[in-house]
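#structure-requests
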Amino acid sequence: MEQEVIESEMILPTHMSFKKIQMHDKYPKGQARGRHWKHLKQIIQAENYHNYPPHQPNYVNIESPPSMHPRKQICDITGFEAPYSDPRTHLRYANTEVFKLIRSLPNEYVQRYLALRNAAVVLK
C-alpha cells in the first residue's frame, strides 16, 4: 500500500481549508499580529473632510438629522432603562425596589428629581 502512494505522485496542498492556520504560519517573525487602531485625529487627517459638502454628516461636522427611534426612558433614581412610570409623582423607575423608594421620598425631593429632567410638575 505504501508503495502505491509513493508511485501515484499525488500532490497534497500545503494548507487544508478546513484546518486552522497556526499563528507562526500566519504571522512570520517580525510581522505585526494585531490591529492598529487609528485615533480620531489620524482619521480626520487621512480622510480630507474639507472636501466634503458641509451638509453631509461626518466626524468633523457632528450635526446630523434627529433620530427616528424613540428616546429611551431612563430611571430617575438609578440611571437604568425605565419601563415604568409612577402616576402619582411622574418619576420613572426601573424595578419595584426603586418604586418603593420613590413612594417614600418627600415631596421636595421628588420636585428636585423632576427638575433635573426638566419636567417639574407641581404635585398635590
